[in-house]
Structures are given as C-alpha cells and as structure tokens.
Design a protein that fits this description.
The chain is mostly beta strands and about 325 residues long. It has helices at about 85-90, 245-250, and strands at about 1-10, 20-35, 40-50, 55-65, 70-85, 95-100, 105-110, 120-130, 135-155, 165-185, 190-205, 215, 215-225, 230-240, 240, 265, 270-285, 290-300, 320-325.
C-alpha cells in the first residue's frame, strides 16, 4: 500500500491578468496491489484533490492483470481524472485590437472566470505484453479510449464582438486508438525497438478549440554500447495533421485585402532520422561510482526533411551538434 500527499502553491503575475492570481492545490492519494490467486493481480487507487478554483474532486483508478504464464499477460485499466481551470483562464483580462480595411480599430475583450467546472477525462485501456526467446524480445499491443467532457474554451456567447469572451464548459471529445510495438536485444551491446501508433478524435469543438493531431506515428531505433563506443539511430515518421484555424480567421476572411496570406491548417507528413555517435575518452571507477568523459557528435534530421510540426512552428532542417559530457 502506498499513501501520500502533495501541495502546490502557484502565484501568477502578468500584464494579461486583472490582478495577481494565487492558487493552492492539495492532493491526498492511496494505492495498493494485491494478488488474487496465482494468475490475477489487482491494482486500485483513489485520489482526493482540493483546488482554489473548483470544488473537491475524487479520482479513482484501477487495473486487472491476468497472467497467462510468467511471460504473457493481459491488462485492463480504467481511471477518472480532472483538470481545474488554469490561473490564466481564471484571471485573464485583455483587449485584442481588431482592424478591418476602411474601419476604425476596435478592441475585443477576453476576461477570465472561475465559474467553470473542471475538465473530466474517463480512460479505458486494454493491453497485452509477451516475452519471447529468453527475454530477448518483448511485444506489446494496446488499445485505448478516452472520453473528455466539460472542456474549457473561451467563447463569446453573443455575436457582438464588443462583448467579452469568457471561459465556458461546452465541448466533449472522444480520443481512441492503439499501439503495437516491440523491443529486442540482439547482443549485450546492441538493442532496438519499433512501434506504430494510431489515434482518432471525435469532438464537438469548433474553431480554435478543436484539437489538431496526426493519425499515424512510427518510431524505430537501434542503440549501441560497445566498450568505449556508443551510438544511436532513431527514426520517426509522423503522418499528416490538420490544426484548425481560430474562428476569427474564418469569420473575418471576407474582409481581408486580396493577396492576404492566411495560416495553413495542414501540416504534411514528415520523417526524422536522428543520429548520435559517442566515444568515452576517460573512465574511472571510484567505489560504486563511475566517472567518465564522453565526446559525441549528433545529427538532428539527417535526411534534411524540411518541415514544420505545427502550422505556426519554425521550419526545421538539419542540425549538427558536438557534445562533451563529463560525469563525476
């Protein structure tokens, strides 16, 4: 049985807030694991949270692990968790200037509010893990489903832009998908991994509140640790994604002058190949402590696949870096 508590005191002061905002968070939690016979393992936990901005919340979680044998097991887990409003969502007070061709500049206000409920997420996960060939290969298959409700978003409840936008609970989202992968040990000095993940989101949000995401991700890598030589090859493929524009861009697009360049919603798929090669130039053993110095060269985006990971992000190209790491 594990029992614990945590406390956070947050103070946020900024020119975008109406006043200096303080928040206290206190949490109490307990978790235990039990074997129900030789094959079934049960894990259960409960968390109680107190927050300045919301009423107290209870967050339960539990898991069942069924061991087919010492090397193969199925796991089912479920949990409920909450996200309270942030200090920005509570204390925001800004005026966004809006200028349209031929019209005077107007200021659209946005103000915070603590009169919202915390966001809630209910999660379910089912997975399988297996060991093969004397633990040289581990395989994993996982499926998940998350239901998010009471999502907080700034909204103007009227069509008048002079009325302030406030945080409101209005949206829901369902996130589901799965992952399959494995890790393998070739020799004592060479190991690797590969996995594929897919996700889908069904959501009621609109405009800026909508979540952008890629459907597909692939990761693979090899790691080398042979005498004084250390190396790593990592490959990442991220599928195309769409990050929706804010409602303001869509609603005001007819007023923009001809030739105005609008932000793109689409981010094309991209591939990342990252390389690292290091050599330990000095090593010393003092009792149980190992002291060493390593020279290394790393290459980020070795394929020079120029890309953005978000429509408003930087254009990323190849980057080469040298390292001297000393551990004492």
């Amino acid at each position: 049985m594990t029992i614990g508590t945590n406390f956070r005191h947050i103070i946020f002061s900024s020119n975008i807030l109406s006043s200096r905002t303080a928040e206290n968070r206190v949490g109490f939690y307990a978790q235990g694991d039990w074997f129900m016979g030789r094959s079934l393992e049960v894990s259960a936990g409960l968390r109680y949270d107190l927050d300045t901005f919301i009423s107290p919340t209870l967050s339960p979680r539990g898991a069942l692990v069924y061991h087919l044998s010492s090397n193969h097991a199925f796991r089912f887990s479920s949990s409920i968790a909450y996200r309270p409003p942030t200090t920005t969502e509570v204390g925001l007070s800004i005026l966004n200037p809006l200028t349209l061709p031929g019209l005077p500049t107007i200021a659209t206000p946005a103000i915070g509010s603590s009169n919202v409920r915390p966001e809630q997420i209910v999660s379910y996960e089912l997975g399988y893990q297996g060991w093969w060939w004397e633990h040289r290969l581990r395989t994993r298959v996982t499926g998940f489903y998350n239901h998010l409700s009471d999502l907080i978003a700034f909204r103007n409840p009227t069509v008048n832009p002079l009325n302030p936008a406030r945080p409101m609970n209005s949206d829901v989202a369902d996130v589901y998908g799965g992952e399959i992968g494995g890790e393998f040990l070739v020799t004592s000095w060479l190991s690797g991994f590969v996995n594929y993940a897919y996700q889908e989101i069904g959501q009621s949000s609109s405009g800026y509140s909508r979540r952008g995401f890629p459907h597909h991700k692939v990761n693979a890598g090899l790691r080398l640790n042979w005498n004084s030589v250390r190396g790593e090859i990592l490959y990442h493929h991220v599928g195309a994604a769409s990050y929706p524009l804010a409602d303001a861009f869509i609603n005001l697009a007819p007023f923009f002058p001809p030739g105005t360049v609008h932000p793109q919603e689409q981010v094309p798929a991209y591939n990342l190949l990252n390389l690292r090669l290091g050599y330990v130039v000095w090593r010393q053993q003092v009792g149980d402590t190992v002291r060493e110095a390593e020279l290394a060269l790393s290459v980020f985006n070795a394929l020079n696949d120029n890309h953005r990971e978000h429509p408003l992000g930087d254009l990323l190209g190849t980057r080469v870096m040298g390292w001297l790491t000393v551990k004492l």
